[in-house]
Here is the input.
Amino acid sequence: MSVQQYIARIDELLARPLTGGDAYHLVTLRESRDFAPPNDDWDELMRTSEEFEAELKDLAAALDARWGPHGSMSMEDYANAFLDPDDDELPPFFRELCESGYFGDLLYWRVGDRLVAVSVGHEDKEEPVVLFAGVTRSDEGFPD
Here is the structure.
């Protein structure tokens, strides 16, 4: 897919209704193959990750041109909280990201009463690399 196709998918998410206080939508924009044996080629995984990160950078530039400069935030604290069996207080949007294995740093924009987030996720070395987007109405968990 092209950056314009990614933006069209994000526009579709923005047009969808969000019901309830914790409502959000997530979409996979692009997904690589998995890297489980016998397909566990480390060099190919690194090339794939770099390719997805470059696409994320291109997408961010296009969205910056549209909505202004993006914010960015680390998912590290949410990932740590998710892995802590005693911590069940994650905001719903971030819990879904963690459950999906999307631990990459988020780039985000405020668009009207919603937040649009994009990133590259890669749960572990055997899983596919994923370029994804999410839309939420809740700013819970996002920096002020």
User: Anything to note?
Assistant: The chain is about 40% helix and 20% strand.
